[in-house]
Amino acid sequence: MSNQQVGPDIEVQVYFQPPPPPALSAASVIVLDIFRATTVHAALFAGEACAVYPVADFAAGRTLRDALPGSRLIGEVGALPPPEVDFGNSPTEFESIDVRGWTVVHVTSNGTRALLGAIESDLALSGCLRNLTASLDHLLSREPAQIAIVCSGDHGGTAPSVEDSFAAGAYVARLRRAAPDIRLRGGARLALKLYHSYARSPTRAFADSPHGDHLRNLGFQADFTYAGDIDADSTVITQTRDGSGRPVLQRVPALLH
Asked: From the centroid of its chain, how far is CA 206?
């Protein structure tokens, strides 16, 4: 992390499943969906996509794609792309094609829904292991009083996931290194212990993930290497609203972080 002064008055909480939106209204939020929505966002914006619109279901996704000329609908059901999408939900797929200038409508089982739940927060970022330090540096530059790290979880956000919980612990560990006296609430302390229990190794955590087992069985092994590459890029992705009030993800210009 950069040499920012991080005060002990910052409070950090980790939610292992998305909380009710009012719980996030005063917080600066980082949403994690390591397998694979927020890792896909990092791949898209590293490839210079223009905008990503997170939506909760494919009915809304099709409607929004029709309303945004030239946009692509991407996503998954059970980790696989349904017939109506243009592309699936694999970050390595987007790493290998030219996505410059794309506007994307994104539907997933967990991550896009978690992002929508954070739209009224003070700041909302799409985070993953690849942009860990860049995301935290940008967040801390805003001098937040409260930081909430939200795991998207599994099964529509109704159950915790190993990979998101591990990544949340990695974020807490980096914050703790910058400010040893930072105030950690219960969820943050538990995430930190989980991170250390896997010896700070994404590979070990991913091997213990039931969702990871499902992806491996479908042949998505390459996504694990991509998702576990900590600080591979400096992309910062923020969620705001477009001119029509729709939640949209965009890359923060480098000069702003």
From this structure: 16
Residues in the chain: 257
Establish how many alpha carbons lie within 13 A of residue 151's alpha carbon, considering only the half-sphere containing its beta carbon. 27
Nearest residue to 142 (alpha-carbon basis) of 65, 238, 245, 33: 238
Per-residue tokens: 4: 């920012």
Alpha-carbon span 220 to 199, nearest angstrom? 24
Tokens in use for 208? 């213990």
Query: How would you list the strands of the sheet with 72-75, edge to edge?
Result: 72-75, 103-107, 51-55, 247-251, 237-241, 123-127, 28-32, 146-151, 11-15, 183-184
Give the torsion sign (CA, 126, 127, 133, 136): positive
Q: Report how far apart the first and last C-alpha atoms of the chain are (Å, whole number).
A: 12
Distances in Å between the Cα of 254 and the Cα atoms of 64, 75, 89, 135, 257 are 29, 28, 26, 12, 6
pTM of the predicted structure, to 2 decimals: 0.96
82 has which bridge partners?
Answer: none
List the pLDDT tens digit at each of the 257 positions of the chain. 665 656 668 999 999 999 999 999 999 999 999 999 999 999 999 999 999 999 999 999 999 999 999 999 999 999 999 999 999 999 999 998 999 999 999 999 999 999 999 999 999 999 999 999 999 999 999 999 999 999 999 999 999 999 999 999 999 999 999 889 999 999 999 999 999 999 999 999 999 999 999 999 999 999 999 999 999 999 999 999 999 999 999 999 865 76
Identify whether the C-beta of residue 241 lies closer than 8 Å to the C-beta of residue 119. Answer: yes
